[in-house]
Amino acid sequence: LIGITFGIYFGYRYLKRYLKFFTIFVSILLGSFFVFFIFYSLYEAYVPIKVKDLNYTNQQKIEKIDRNFSFYAVGNTFYNIEFFDSFLSSISTPSSKSFVVDLGNVVYSGDLSKYKIFVHEMTKFKLPFLVTPGPRDFQDGGYKNYYTVFGNYDYTFHAGDAFFVSINNSNDQISKPELDWISDRFSSASTYKYRILLMHFPASWMESTGIHLDRNSSDKLEELLKSKNVNLVISTGKNKIYSQAQIPYLIVGGSKYAMITVNSSGISAKIDSLPSLRSNFNQVMQDLSIYVYTILIIEWPIIGLIGIGILILWFLWKWYRISVKIEKK
Q1: Does residue 37 sit in the same domain as residue 110?
Q2: Nearest 5°: phi and psi at 106?
Q3: 211-215, 241-245, 255-259, 279-283: lowest mean pLDDT where?
Q4: Beta-strand relationship, 129-131 and 100-102
Q5: Please, is 144 exposed, middle or buried when counting C-beta atoms within 10 Å of its C-beta (0-12, 13-18, 19+)?
Q6: Residue-by-residue DSSP string for 182-248
Q7: What DSSP letter does each residue of 92-151 carry, written as one string?
Q8: Could you tell me the pLDDT band of residue 45, with boundaries at 50, 70 and 90?
Q9: Residue 128 sits in the same domain as residue 207
Q10: Is residue 155 part of a domain?
């Protein structure tokens, strides 16, 4: 865009004696740019995404972990570019026995273009990355896009001596079939020393501000988790660790992340804040370029209409100038 602007400015200064040629050249240049932009935006917004079933692919890597390991929990990231870059700088030397769990709201809304931006960011990660769905992930047709990119809404996996169940409670409820499924999954994990539940919204008995599971679902879930001797529940919200509760739980999200360590001594967790990268000029410029790309992809209809409007005004202005010259002659 900067190059085109300077090209038009200097071109007009040095080629104004060839006004007709210059007008045709600029019109073709601008027209080509906007046609390319519109078709590229349509491609980004509607051409099916190539990545599929990421959760299953990463589960296979995670299930090779034996014995002691650690993993990271994040939430409400909304494909935030600075968050992911800052997070990567915090774990610059990750262990091979590590992975990341995002507890939902990985995108602002679930249309295809936003999932493409998220997948673009995920190419930076060297660790296996799993996603538990949140309500934003399902907006604007997100059910289908989430299923394409990540796979099943509810799933299980294991790592070392720990068995994980991830559930979809994005509508702040858990139905009876889902409760039965959770019970069945934990019952099948009797050989594992630790049992961990992942979900987006915390239960009402978890001391957190914001949206909770409804009271009925929370009470039934609490009873179920006690009967299955679940060792840890992780969800999003205001960052807290309650290791001494009847059902230990961890709440994390926003600009912080949790590191959970699982070994023969038990499960331990700590919450850390992410360092700011705004002082790094190269990082700021890289983030700015991706922000611009994000705006182009998300708001392409409005930007496209503005561009077409500018092009039409350009033609009208040139037509007016030529008409005035003819009248004077």
Answers
A1: no
A2: -80, -20
A3: 279-283
A4: parallel
A5: exposed
A6: HHHHHHTTTT-SEEEEE-SSPPTTS--SS----HHHHHHHHHHHHHTT--EEEE-SS-EEESSSSS-
A7: SS--TT--EEE-S--SSS--HHHHHHHHHHHTT--S-EEE---GGGGTTTHHHHHHHHH-
A8: low
A9: yes
A10: yes
Residue with tokens 């091979």: 96
Judge if 97 and 181 occupy the same domain: yes
| Structure tokens that stand for 198 in this block | 């992942």
Question: What is the residue-wise DSSP string for 211-227?
Answer: ----HHHHHHHHHHHHH
Amino acid type, 235? S
**157 and 210 inside one domain:** yes
Q: Decide if 202 contacts 69 (C-beta within 8 A).
A: no
Helix (H, G, I), strand (E, B) or coil at 154: coil
Task: Tell me if 76 sits within 8 A of 105, measured CB to CB.
Answer: yes
Highest mean pLDDT among 19-23, 50-54, 167-171: 167-171
Least confident interval from 69-83, 152-166, 188-202: 69-83
Which amino acid is located at 45 in the chain?
A
Q: Which two tokens stand for residue 135?
A: 């309500």
HSE-CB at 172 with a 13 A cutoff on CA atoms is 8
Its domain, for residue 322, covers: 2-47+300-328
How many Å is the maximal CA-CA distance in the chain? 95
Residue whose C-alpha is closest to residue 291's, from 138, 140, 121, 51: 121
CATH code, 178: 3.60.21.10
* C-alpha 194 chain-centroid distance: 29
Tell me, yes or no, whether 289 lies in a domain.
no
**Selected residue with higher pLDDT from 277 and 103:** 103
Pairing of strands 256-263, 69-74: antiparallel
Closest CA relative to residue 233, chosen from 208, 265, 264: 208
Do 213 and 197 touch, CB atoms closer than 8 A?
A: no
Strand partners, 102: 74, 131
Give the chain's domain count: 2
Task: For residues 129 and 77, state if they share a domain.
Answer: yes
